[in-house]
Amino acid sequence: MVERRPLIAGNWKMNFDHLRSIAFVQKLAWTLKDAKYSAGQVEVAVFPPFTDIRSVQTTIESDRMEFAFGAQDLSPHDSGAHTGDISGEFLAKLGCTYVIVGHSERRMDHHEDDELVAAKTRAALLHGLVPVVCVGETTEDREAHGASAVPVAQLRVVLESIAKDSDIVVAYEPVWAIGSGQAATPKEAQEVCSALREEIAAVMGNDAAERTRVLYGGSVKSQNIASFMREADVDGALVGGASLDVDEFSRIVQFPKHIIA
Ligand code: PGA
Fold first, then answer.
1. Does the beta carbon of 182 sit less than 6 angstroms from any atom of ligand 1?
2. Might you give the EC number(s) for this enzyme (predicted)?
3. Which residues touch 66 (CB under 8 Å, ≥6 apart)?
4. Residue located nearest, by CA, to atom 6 of ligand 1
5. Is there a smaller number of Cβ atoms within 10 Å at the N or the C end of the chain?
6. Angle, helices 149-159/186-204, rounded to nearest 10 degrees
7. Which of ligand 1's atoms lies nearest the C-alpha of 100?
8. Positions marked catalytic
9. How far is CA 166 from CA 81, 95, 236, in A?
């Protein structure tokens, strides 16, 4: 059986200018060092706005911090006449490991559909970035089709358009749980994360399903992270609001202490 290293990912959304981003990662590094954090046990990644990425990169690299970082979006195109867009190639040059695609806020604010999310996933893979593919149902979807149907269908469109050996991360984020303070229960998260893993197995094979990390996101906090991480198919969390508070985010990263206790 493949060991999947837990990933705690902080999605800053449109928060922190580049100066604040530097102060944040420095404080995060000190706090986790004090807590004897080891990246071997839990991987930490931050997702700053585009304008912060260069500052975050130089801070992390010059102090040899054990954090990964990524962007919150990318263009499906490689270059050219696409005013305001950012290419995966540029993100790769900045040392990004990851890029979020298909976050529900982009699906809503920018009318991104499953085909565009699939195209962005392919663009990320083309440039050597690991896409964090976000899927999730609204309250209406859940009432009409149950919890898993929409997230599984969203993921299928992406999976069917990429190579079977692609390295991706999947994030299950029920739309009703994002920023609402009302997280899914661990059982609800497990049910959908397991359905997503079955879909990965069906489209990409068992090896891909075994190695691909599936995260839960939506009102994750230090008080509930351990209960999600106890579930067999939850391999980490995509954290929004709680990732903006260094102490709270550090406590989330240290969830193994609560699981062992
Ligand atoms: P939240 O956001 O933790 O503030 O609910 C999660 C996300 O949107 O990724």
1. no
2. 5.3.1.1
3. 37, 39, 44
4. 240
5. N
6. 30
7. 9
8. 103, 173
9. 28, 19, 19
- pTM greater than 0.90 (yes/no): yes
Residue 42 three-state SS: coil
Asked whether 219 lines ligand 1 (CB < 6 A), one says yes
Buried b (16+ CB within 10 A) or exposed e, 249-258: bbbbbbbeee
Q: Do the beta carbons of residue 165 and residue 130 sit within 8 Å? A: no
- Mind listing the pLDDT tens digit for each residue in 86-144? 999 999 999 999 999 999 999 999 999 999 999 999 999 999 999 999 999 999 999 99
Closest-CA residue to 103 (of 77, 69, 141, 133): 133
Q: How far is CA 3 from CA 41, 80, 170, 231, 232, in A?
A: 11, 41, 16, 14, 12
- Domains of the chain by range and CATH? 7-258 (3.20.20.70)
Q: For the residues 134-157, what does the mean pLDDT come to? A: 98
List, as own/partner pairs, every contact residues 192-196 make where C-beta atoms lie below 8 angstroms and the sequence separation is at least 24, other chains included: 192/147, 192/148, 192/151, 192/152, 193/231, 193/233, 193/234, 194/232, 194/233, 195/148, 195/151, 195/152, 196/135, 196/148, 196/151, 196/152, 196/155, 196/170, 196/172, 196/233
Does any ligand 1 atom lie closer than 6 A to the CB of residue 173?
A: yes
152 lines ligand 1 (CB under 6 A): no
244: phi then psi, degrees, rounded to nearest 5: -90, -5
CA–centroid distance, 218 to ligand 1, in Å, is 5
List Cα–Cα distances, 151 to 44, 109, 126, 174, in angstroms. Answer: 25, 18, 24, 8
Nearest CA to ligand 1 atom 9: 240
Tell me how far apart the alpha carbons of residues 130 and 232 are, in angstroms, rounded to a whole number. 22
